[in-house]
């Protein structure tokens, strides 16, 4: 351990850090997550949130802005939207001095949040440079006379912290606007929510998400096999960030396999790359391959009770040994069964009850093997007695 | 002398005998220089750790084999001192933060920060970053996982994480999306047989194919267990043949006995006897959820078809309660009572 | 395993001290030299801070009541001889023979005697009186932060021991006065006086890794190593050395949540010391009511003598309930309290002894344990009120109302002295025999329903959040009540009425089905802890021997026992070991630590005979009991001899009879 932290090492590190700065830039660009790299630059770039975008665009014209609360499932562009809005409001030069991004779940204590907000609000309002350049700048960007504070993951703040935030919002309301970003609007206390205009971000639809993914793939020169885009969208449940991350991971994996053969220097864009396949995407997303699920479903629907038990038991055992995640299995079974037209609604009713119970158990950390076995056997029973 | 399971552990990616495609992928990632954070998951005894160590070797060369164990002391906010063991080489370190229970966040934050803020000591090292292997990542508290997520973002130039977990279910989504998921499935029975055969050959043990098959079967696709069973069988018997007895571990034998007793007699007196055996198991640190699961699977083959799914149902039910409750014996006993009543009804 | 050496004394008899004026060793010793009254005066000085100005003229304590009478009874009327000692004779003999053996050389390989048992069971008094009888001088170790000023009577522990402690720096300085000798061995030979080291104060055991505790253990171990010869070198006949006696008041009652705060010999000393060959453990039990009664009578007599008055008679009922306390110190205090008031020879006339009056006595004369057992009795005997309530006509049986129990769960909870979690655990421990019914089906139904309710109750209990610091809130308390409520209501409505407790034949509890047992479930953690440490030891040893792939096996250590280790590696390792030994020609050698960790059930299967050996004649000292007194049971934790893996310490110390619950 000590060798990690000794002083000489630190000095060396400092020296080499300085030396490698120039080279490091390029390195970083490669490592930079695509999610960041392809974040929308303007409001118009934001994928498929037309309602929210059109309202927000209007605020660009007016010089005022309400406090805002963005909510919706992850990866639907909430943070991207507010960042894009801020960019359009302030332009690149003032962006850093006018916008504070706080991650509520990171800096947990309200005192820290308050301190940071205070410091930020106290700072002088930065203004565009004087003279003709400034006038030009003002023409391009509205630069309203307030700062924006973005509180990401606001729903992970405690109730107390949220109440305290209420006061902070009032104190600095003259010169700051808050934008709370969260997944669950219900976890924001009412007094806070009522101070904000709310924007709901809905999950992305397949077409939009797919289009965006293809664009990125093209820019990054990643070959996508047929169906890979579908697989990406499917595996990420409308979470575009997740989908892009999956895409990057798959590309990385494919690229790695590629270059491993040719040696690291051959890593060149011109070399024809292997395509990202559906399987790779599924593996990266941890999605259980379809035929496993199908076999399981088949076993569950077998007519004789004894046979159903034996075959379900065997398959579940294999699933457990193969290391598939139980929540994933549950999710995929659910999607299959609930959208299965051959099953009656009353039957589905019962089945969904079983799903909810099993899901709760898994969340509580119950044994995955037993829970899945129980789930499948009970569903199998329901199917048999009603089918 | 070392156990076979340790002695014959593969030390490099080449030596791994199954999941060749996976090994290939890991090798490619290691050689590529753009090594991502990994989340390696799969059942116990499937070779996750072995694979990770082999990957590290691929990354850094034999230097990772020179390890030492240090005890570090951390101080919590309430001024409690935590002692925490770290296994490290000059290139990587390995921690099990869940050892310190609810204080795992402190350890994660402090330690990883420290690691990340220093750079590789060995200037000739193949990689600029260091690797931190985190065992039992699925046992980390939510807090610790959140801390981990931040750390991953902040310090990724200097550090890569390899998380080991039995399942991804308890890993929060942000971490899952920031890591490359690597699933290590348990080896198939044939693959286990192969390993047994090669180990047996290396040890100059008599090769009995049928026995190996039985071991593979009994092990439940757990290679570590299979190797231990294999060694135990050979240590205990002079003449090995296809029908040599494979003794189960004592705890399992006791649970099997409990299962038999449940089937034979359904009375309050029996419950009391079983309760005593349960206490015996519990006091020997056998986890209650292991007890209920093993018991259920021991009961299932011995009861009629109609009851099988019932038994599974209740075992899952009480397994959940064991997780949620505090007095596990209540739930174990309720399960036993339930099964007895079912059996009695049927009789 | 706490049990160690070969010459274990029996574990059964039941100690009864008459008083436990702890840390008054010097006084006692001095009392020998001077005449008793003066000794008391001298005692007073140290105790109450009275200076020499206090007139010491009085020779009759009764004549000068102010200072003397102001002392509590348990100090004033402490036993002055072995015969007065309210500890079971056999136990005293055990201790005596050990001390004699060590000092005189018969047991020359023994060094450390561990006396453990609940508070107020007479451990200290026994040792002190024995030391006097045997002519030993007691050197007592005190934590330096103790409140009492050092007196010349207090001498440090043996210098070597002390030296070590000093160096470790965790105890601060010792009160080293008088005794200038530095080497215990030389001083021992030079002094004609034989000595004994008494340790009653211990470092904080909150954390197993606490440095104070570690160095304490180390010091003890060093002492054992340096002075005790190994059993093999028996022939060398070492000089008899100074024995150490440690007195540990183990926390008897504990809930699962309080486990961390509990104080046990195991926590204090760890497996290594407890397993050392030079260490003997003797367990004391709560004092049996019969012996307690004798002791209390003795106190009353002494009191009468002292005050010059008539012997006060508290009446059997009061005496009976006081004698049930089990803790003699507590019992005497209670007795003293009741004798207050008018100062006349009678006890408080309005003594609310009637338990039927909703149990609201002025003073909680029963310890919480007894309340606990009574409360549990109320549940598992499932009494119902007379069927006077209006019942539907016979053709509507499904509307029949269950009879009301005489006591509502709410009332029971209010009265309950113990915490609810312990209460529920005790119900669980004892509900099974109550399920006895006519048909097997009914029996199982009732059993199953009860088990279910208890499971429900546990899920409702707030314990599972205790790790997150929510534990103490009012909500948690309320929740605890709810949990107990569910348990009470559920069990009592699912038990058959009337209850016929069945003899659980073949079960691990022998004897009367009517006995209510203390829940083992609350004790299991102790055993778990022991085994856990044993596992650590085993692993450490194997790592040391290079039998273990260090690092690769992924066990970087830590407090938790890894399931992989316990479920796979160790059991098979044990099998392999056994196989190797057999092949090597020897028959499997004695139990190693390893097999202790992995083997089960020996305690269960080899039961039967063992117990009787371990518990010789539990009845012998109950014969003189007043007839309606609760029969003392074979009490305490029985550590089965030589059997490993046995969890079921039997804890039925405080059992109660059927009749007793009805009143």
TrEMBL record, chain A:
Residues 64-205 form the AAA+ ATPase domain. It is found in: Nucleus. It comes from the Eukaryota. GO terms for cellular component: DNA replication factor C complex; Elg1 RFC-like complex; nucleus. GO terms for biological process: DNA repair; DNA strand elongation involved in DNA replication. The keyword Nucleus applies. Pfam families: AAA, RCF1-5-like_lid, Rep_fac_C. Keywords: ATP-binding, DNA replication, Hydrolase, Nucleotide-binding, Nucleus. GO terms for molecular function: ATP binding; ATP hydrolysis activity; DNA binding; DNA clamp loader activity. InterPro entries: AAA+_ATPase, ATPase_AAA_core, DNA_pol3_clamp-load_cplx_C, DNA_Rep/Repair_Clamp_Loader, P-loop_NTPase, Rep_factorC_C, RFC_lid. Belongs to the activator 1 small subunits family. This is Replication factor C subunit 2.
UniProtKB/TrEMBL annotation, chain B:
The keyword Transmembrane helix does not apply. The keyword Nucleus applies. One of its GO terms (cellular component) is Elg1 RFC-like complex. Its main location: nucleus. GO terms for biological process: DNA repair; DNA strand elongation involved in DNA replication. SUPFAM superfamilies: P-loop containing nucleoside triphosphate hydrolases (SSF52540), post-AAA+ oligomerization domain-like (SSF48019). It comes from the Eukaryota. It is found in: Nucleus. Keywords: DNA replication, Nucleus. PANTHER family: REPLICATION FACTOR C / DNA POLYMERASE III GAMMA-TAU SUBUNIT, REPLICATION FACTOR C SUBUNIT 3. Belongs to the activator 1 small subunits family. This is Replication factor C subunit 5. It comes from Trichodelitschia bisporula. The lineage of its organism: Eukaryota, Fungi, Dikarya, Ascomycota, Pezizomycotina.
TrEMBL record, chain C:
The keyword Nucleotide-binding applies. Residues 368-463 form the Checkpoint protein RAD24-like helical bundle domain. Keywords: ATP-binding, Cell cycle, DNA damage, Nucleotide-binding, Nucleus. It comes from the Eukaryota. InterPro entries: Checkpoint_prot_Rad17_Rad24, P-loop_NTPase, RAD24-like_helical. The keyword Transcription does not apply. Residues 1-72, 604-641 are annotated as: Disordered. GO terms for cellular component: nucleus. It is found in: Nucleus. One of its GO terms (molecular function) is ATP binding. One of its GO terms (biological process) is DNA damage checkpoint signaling. Residues 51-63 have a biased composition (Low complexity). Its main location: nucleus. Pfam families: Rad17, RAD24_helical. Belongs to the rad17/RAD24 family. This is Checkpoint protein RAD24-like helical bundle domain-containing protein. It comes from Trichodelitschia bisporula.
């Amino acid at each position: 351990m000590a060798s990690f932290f000794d002083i000489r090492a630190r000095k060396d590190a400092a020296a080499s850090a300085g030396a490698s700065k120039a080279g490091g830039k390029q390195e970083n660009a490669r490592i930079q997550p695509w999610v960041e790299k392809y974040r929308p630059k303007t409001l118009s770039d934001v994928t498929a949130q037309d309602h929210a975008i059109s309202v927000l665009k209007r605020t660009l014209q007016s010089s005022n802005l309400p406090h805002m609360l963005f909510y919706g499932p992850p990866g639907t562009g909430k943070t991207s939207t507010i960042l894009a809005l801020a960019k359009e409001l302030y332009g690149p030069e003032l962006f850093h001095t006018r916008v504070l991004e706080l991650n509520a779940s990171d800096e947990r204590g309200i005192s820290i949040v308050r301190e940071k907000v205070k410091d930020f609000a106290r700072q002088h309002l930065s203004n565009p440079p004087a003279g003709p350049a400034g006038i030009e700048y003002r023409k391009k960007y509205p630069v309203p006379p307030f700062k924006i504070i973005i509180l990401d993951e606001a729903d992970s703040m405690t109730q107390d912290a949220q109440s305290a935030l209420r006061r902070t919002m009032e104190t600095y309301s003259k010169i700051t606007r808050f934008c709370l970003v969260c997944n669950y609007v219900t976890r924001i206390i009412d007094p806070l929510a009522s101070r904000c205009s709310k924007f709901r971000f809905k999950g992305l639809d397949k077409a939009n998400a797919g289009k965006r993914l293809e664009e990125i793939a093209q820019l990054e020169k990643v070959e996508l096999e047929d169906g890979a885009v579908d697989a990406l969208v499917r595996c990420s449940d409308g979470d575009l960030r997740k989908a892009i991350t999956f895409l990057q991971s798959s590309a990385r994996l494919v690229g790695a396999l590629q270059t491993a053969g040719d040696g690291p220097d051959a890593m060149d864009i011109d070399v024809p790359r292997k395509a990202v396949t559906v399987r790779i995407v599924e593996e990266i997303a941890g999605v259980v391959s379809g035929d496993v699920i199908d076999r399981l479903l088949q076993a569950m629907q077998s007519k004789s009770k004894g046979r159903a038990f034996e075959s379900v038991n065997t398959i579940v055992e294999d699933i457990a040994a193969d290391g598939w995640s139980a929540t994933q299995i549950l999710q995929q079974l659910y999607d299959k069964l609930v959208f299965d037209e051959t099953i009656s609604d009353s039957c589905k009713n019962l089945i969904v009850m079983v799903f909810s119970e099993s899901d709760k158990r898994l969340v509580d950390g119950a044994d995955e093997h037993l829970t899945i076995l129980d789930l499948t056997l009970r569903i199998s029973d329901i199917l048999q007695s009603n089918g | 002398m070392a156990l076979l399971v340790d002695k014959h552990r593969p030390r490099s990616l080449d030596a791994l005998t199954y999941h060749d495609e996976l090994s290939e992928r890991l090798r490619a990632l290691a050689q590529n220089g753009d090594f991502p954070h990994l989340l390696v998951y799969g059942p116990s005894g499937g070779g996750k750790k072995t694979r990770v160590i082999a990957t590290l070797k691929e990354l850094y060369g034999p230097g990772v084999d020179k390890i030492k164990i240090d005890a570090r002391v951390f101080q919590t906010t309430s001024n409690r001192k935590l002692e925490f063991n770290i296994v490290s080489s000059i290139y990587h370190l390995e921690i099990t933060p869940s050892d310190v229970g609810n204080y795992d966040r402190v350890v994660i934050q402090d330690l990883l920060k420290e690691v990340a803020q220093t750079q590789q000591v060995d200037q000739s090292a193949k990689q600029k970053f260091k690797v931190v292997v985190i065992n039992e990542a699925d046992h980390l508290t939510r807090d610790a996982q959140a801390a981990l997520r931040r750390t991953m973002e902040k310090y990724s130039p200097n550090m890569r994480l390899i998380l080991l977990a039995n399942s991804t279910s308890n890993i929060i989504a942000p971490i899952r999306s920031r890591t490359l998921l690597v699933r290590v499935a348990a080896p198939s029975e044939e693959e286990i047989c192969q390993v047994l055969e090669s180990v047996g050959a290396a040890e100059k043990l008599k090769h009995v194919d049928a026995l190996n098959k039985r071991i593979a079967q009994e092990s439940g696709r757990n290679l570590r267990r299979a190797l231990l069973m294999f060694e135990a069988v050979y240590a205990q018997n002079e003449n090995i043949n296809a029908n040599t007895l494979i003794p189960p571990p004592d705890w399992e034998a006791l649970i099997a006995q409990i299962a038999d007793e449940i089937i034979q007699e359904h009375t309050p007196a029996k419950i009391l006897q079983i309760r005593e055996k349960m206490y015996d198991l519990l006091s020997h640190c056998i986890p209650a959820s292991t007890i209920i699961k093993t018991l259920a699977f021991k009961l299932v083959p011995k009861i009629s078809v109609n009851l099988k799914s019932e038994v599974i149902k209740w075992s899952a039910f009480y397994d959940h309660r064991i997780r949620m409750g505090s007095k596990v014996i209540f739930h174990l006993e309720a399960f036993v009572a339930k099964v007895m009543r079912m059996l009695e009804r049927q009789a | 395993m706490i049990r160690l050496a070969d010459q274990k004394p029996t574990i059964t008899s039941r100690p009864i001290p008459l008083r436990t004026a702890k840390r008054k060793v010097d006084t006692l010793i001095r009392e020998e030299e001077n005449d008793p009254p003066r000794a008391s005066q001298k005692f007073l000085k140290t105790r109450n801070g009275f200076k020499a100005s206090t007139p010491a003229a009085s020779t009759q304590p009764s004549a000068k009541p102010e200072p003397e009478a102001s002392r509590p009874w348990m100090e004033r009327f402490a036993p002055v001889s072995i015969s007065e000692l309210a500890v079971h004779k056999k136990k005293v003999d055990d201790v005596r023979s050990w001390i004699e053996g060590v000092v005189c050389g018969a047991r020359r390989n023994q060094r450390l005697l561990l006396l453990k048992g609940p508070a107020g069971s007479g451990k200290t008094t026994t040792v002190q009186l024995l030391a006097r009888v045997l002519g030993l001088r007691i050197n007592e170790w005190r934590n330096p932060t103790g409140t009492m000023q050092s007196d010349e009577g207090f001498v440090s522990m043996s210098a070597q021991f002390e030296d070590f402690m000093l160096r470790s720096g965790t105890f601060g300085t010792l009160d080293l006065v008088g005794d200038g000798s530095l080497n215990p061995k030389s001083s021992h030979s030079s002094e004609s006086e034989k000595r004994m080291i008494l340790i009653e104060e211990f470092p904080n055991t909150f954390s197993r890794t606490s440095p104070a505790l570690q160095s304490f253990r180390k010091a003890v171990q060093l002492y054992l190593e340096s002075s005790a010869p190994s059993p093999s070198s028996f022939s060398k006949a070492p000089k008899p050395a100074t024995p150490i006696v440690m007195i540990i008041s183990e926390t008897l009652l504990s809930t699962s949540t309080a486990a961390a705060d509990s104080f046990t010999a195991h926590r204090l000393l760890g497996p290594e010391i407890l397993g050392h060959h030079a260490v003997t453990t003797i367990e004391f039990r709560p004092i049996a009511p019969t012996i307690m009664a004798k002791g209390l009578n003795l106190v009353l007599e002494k009191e009468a003598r002292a005050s010059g008055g008539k012997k006060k008679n508290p009446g059997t009922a009061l005496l009976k309930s006081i004698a049930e306390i089990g803790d003699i110190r507590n019992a005497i205090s209670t007795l003293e309290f009741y004798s207050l008031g008018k100062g006349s020879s009678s006890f408080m006339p309005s003594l609310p002894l009637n338990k039927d009056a909703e149990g609201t006595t002025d003073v909680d004369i029963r310890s919480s344990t007894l309340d606990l057992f009574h409360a549990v009795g109320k549940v598992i005997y499932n009494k119902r009120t007379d069927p006077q309530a209006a019942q539907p006509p016979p053709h509507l049986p499904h509307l029949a109302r269950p009879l009301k129990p005489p006591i509502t769960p709410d009332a029971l909870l209010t009265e309950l002295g113990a915490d609810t979690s312990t209460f529920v655990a005790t119900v669980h421990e004892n509900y099974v025999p109550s399920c006895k019914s006519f048909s097997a089906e009914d029996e199982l139904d009732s059993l199953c329903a009860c088990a279910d309710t208890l499971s429900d109750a546990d899920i409702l209990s707030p314990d599972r959040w205790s790790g997150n610091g929510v534990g103490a809130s009012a909500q948690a308390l309320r929740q605890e009540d709810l949990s107990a409520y569910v348990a009470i209501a559920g069990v009592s409505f699912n038990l058959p009425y009337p209850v016929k407790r069945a003899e659980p034949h073949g079960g691990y509890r022998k004897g009367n089905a009517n006995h209510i047992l203390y829940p083992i479930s609350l004790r299991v953690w102790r055993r778990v802890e022991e085994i856990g440490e044993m596992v650590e030891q085993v692993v450490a040893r194997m790592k040391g021997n290079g039998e273990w792939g260090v690092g690769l096996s992924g066990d970087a250590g830590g407090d938790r026992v890894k399931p992989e280790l316990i479920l796979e590696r160790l059991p098979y390792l044990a099998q392999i070991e056994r196989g190797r030994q057999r092949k090597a020609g020897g028959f499997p050698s004695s139990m190693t630590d390893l097999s202790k960790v992995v083997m089960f059930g020996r305690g269960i299967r080899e039961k039967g005979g063992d117990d009787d050996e371990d518990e010789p004649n539990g009845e012998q000292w109950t014969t003189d009991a007043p007839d309606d007194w609760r029969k003392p049971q074979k009490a305490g934790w029985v550590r089965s001899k030589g059997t490993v893996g046995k969890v079921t310490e039997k804890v039925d110390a405080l059992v109660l009879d059927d009749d007793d619950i009805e009143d």
